[in-house]
Design brief:
Blueprint: E1 2-4, E2 7-8, E3 11-12, E4 19-25, E5 30-37, H1 40-57, H2 62-78, H3 80-91, H4 95-112, H5 115-118, E6 123-128, E7 131-139, E8 142-146, H6 154-165, E9 169-173, H7 180-191, E10 199-201, H8 206-214, E11 220-224, H9 227-239, E12 243-247, E13 252-256, H10 262-274, E14 284-290, H11 294-305, H12 325-340, E15 344-347, E16 364-367, H13 374-377, E17 384-390, H14 393-402, E18 405-406, E19 408-412, H15 416-425, E20 430-433, E21 449-450, E22 453-454, H16 461-467, E23 469-477
Parallel strand pairs: 1-5, 8-9, 8-11, 9-10, 11-12, 13-14, 13-19, 14-17, 16-17, 19-20
Antiparallel strand pairs: 2-3, 4-5, 6-7, 7-23, 12-22, 15-16, 18-21
Helix pairs in contact: 2-4, 2-7, 3-4, 3-7, 4-6, 10-11
Length: 494
């Protein structure tokens, strides 16, 4: 059985842990390994290693930093199938989806390869006689990344390539459910030439999270997860003076207008609703059908959903298992709740026949879902798609804008005017027009509105550069005899 330890100062941490967690293969339901849980002593060692490494890394040339990023990019690209296999073995998503995850993470690495351009400051000559003013951006220090189980590689890659390229040192606290992939990433960073201590991996539970949040040497925290935890991370971190970006939950709506291509919309609803078994913060979970197309759209979605093959993600299935038995049972309870609340069960994933003892749940489709139902109000994070019927665009927009979450949304239409109006009026951070999962490229930023984001800077893109650096403005004058004399007045830029 595989035993996973921390990665501190460029090597595996050898001390025997006092506490460990179990790692499952969700496709079989069998325990595949264990992972060490950090205590305060281990947390201190990781943070101290990061702080020590930072002192040299911050002074490493931009050229050297980008060379390491380029080398790391090549290594990840060459090993992406192996990384994907590790993801599938512990998360359960199908291999093609896991490879896609690694590829999207690589896009941020490629963005970070251009960091010299992004760290350029500004310069104003002669703002006053003989006076120049210029701005520079400097790294923060040791930074922490707390990442979720659903994207064990891509989400950390939203942050650490930019953090490292900007001159910071990093501690990643991955999910204890699927920690193996990030350990391979750590080894590849070392192979790429990254100095020891610049990248560290600390495993654990709430003890590790709180230890990083409260440690005085940690300068910032980047978090992705559920909204209650995101709010806790933001409040705790900012209370002790840290810079925090905390990305929370979602309830992503897909509005389908009567003029839309319903076959395209149905395909999109399937792909965005059931990909990765719905365990995506950008998954579509609420389809808003603007009448009179409801019956036809539901029928098209149902006939596609019933054909989805649920099974082992490493053996050619369309949709894999959920990450744990506890989570599978929680999602199943939402189906029960929706049924009791009066929604129409078109397809019941609880009845899907799947061989094996994995944590499986088939695609589930609800129709006639109402805004007061739990399956609409709450983030389910599973293969459950709800169809809400409305009479107009205005009613659909109202649904989206009044929901507590504002992560992603999409509209399907052939009407350019309606699409343009929607992108202007909708109160959501990421908008798709005939695109069901509007995750932006790495040179833009990722993040939602309302209860989907705590903090004012989003992930990656120029927001990422701003987050992992501090601005400094220098006013400079090289003295000569003309600068002498006493003048207590405020400078007048003469």
């Amino acid at each position: 059985m595989n035993s996973i330890s921390h990665w501190i100062n460029g090597e595996l941490f050898g001390d025997k842990p006092a506490r460990t967690g179990e790692i499952y293969n969700p496709a079989t339901g069998v325990i595949s390994g264990s992972v060490a849980f950090a205590d305060t002593v281990v947390i201190d060692k990781a943070v101290n290693a990061a702080e020590k490494a930072f002192q040299d890394w911050r002074h490493t040339s931009l050229t050297k930093r980008t060379q390491i990023m380029f080398a790391f990019r090549d290594l990840v690209h060459k090993n992406k199938e192996k990384i994907a296999q590790l993801i599938t073995a512990e998360h359960g998503k199908v291999l093609s989806d896991a490879i896609g995850e690694v590829t999207r993470g690589l896009e941020v690495v490629e963005f970070a390869c251009g960091i010299p351009h992004l760290l350029k400051g500004g310069f104003s000559e002669e703002v006053s006689t003989g006076v120049d003013v210029y701005s520079i951006r400097q790294p923060l220090g040791p930074v922490a990344i707390i990442s979720p189980f659903n994207f064990p590689v891509m989400v950390p890659m939203w942050f650490f390539p930019i953090a490292i390229a900007c001159g910071n040192s990093v501690i990643v606290k991955p999910s204890e459910k699927d920690p193996s992939a990030i350990m391979m990433i750590a080894q590849l960073l070392k192979e790429a030439g990254l100095p020891d201590g610049v990248f560290n991996v600390l495993h654990g539970d709430k003890v590790a999270v709180d230890g990083l949040l409260n440690h005085p040497k940690i300068k910032s925290v980047s978090f992705v997860g559920s909204t209650p935890i995101a709010k806790y991370v933001y409040e705790t971190g900012t209370k002790v003076g840290k810079r925090v970006q905390a990305l929370g939950g979602a309830k992503n709506h897909m509005i389908v207008l009567p003029d839309a291509d319903l076959d395209l919309a149905a395909d999109a609803a399937i792909n965005a609703g059931f990909g990765s078994a719905g365990e995506r913060c950008m998954a579509i979970s609420a389809v808003v059908a603007v009448e009179p197309i409801g019956d036809k759209l539901v029928s098209k979605i149902a006939e596609r959903a019933i054909k989805i093959k649920t099974g082992d993600g490493a053996k050619g299935a369309d949709m894999g298992p959920l990450v744990t038995k506890v989570h599978r049972d929680k999602v199943s309870s939402y189906i029960t709740a929706g049924e009791k609340e009066g929604a129409k069960v078109v397809l019941d994933g609880r009845q899907t026949k799947i061989s094996g003892d994995g944590f499986y749940l088939g695609p589930t489709l609800f129709d006639n879902v109402k805004p007061n139902m739990s399956i609409y109000l709450e983030e389910i994070f599973g293969p459950v798609l709800s169809v809400i019927r409305v009479k107009s665009y205005e009613e659909a927009l109202k649904l989206v804008n009044e929901h507590q979450y504002g992560n992603g949304t999409a509209i399907f239409t052939n009407d350019g005017g309606a699409a343009r109006r929607f992108q202007n009026e909708v109160e959501v951070g990421m908008v798709g027009i005939n695109v069901p999962i509007p995750v932006p490229m790495a040179y833009f930023s990722f993040g939602g509105w309302k209860n989907s984001l705590f903090g004012d800077l989003h992930a990656h893109g120029t927001d990422g550069v701003q987050f992992f650096t501090r601005g400094k403005v220098v006013t400079s004058r090289w003295l000569d005899p003309s600068h002498g004399g006493i003048n207590l007045g405020f400078p007048q830029n003469s």
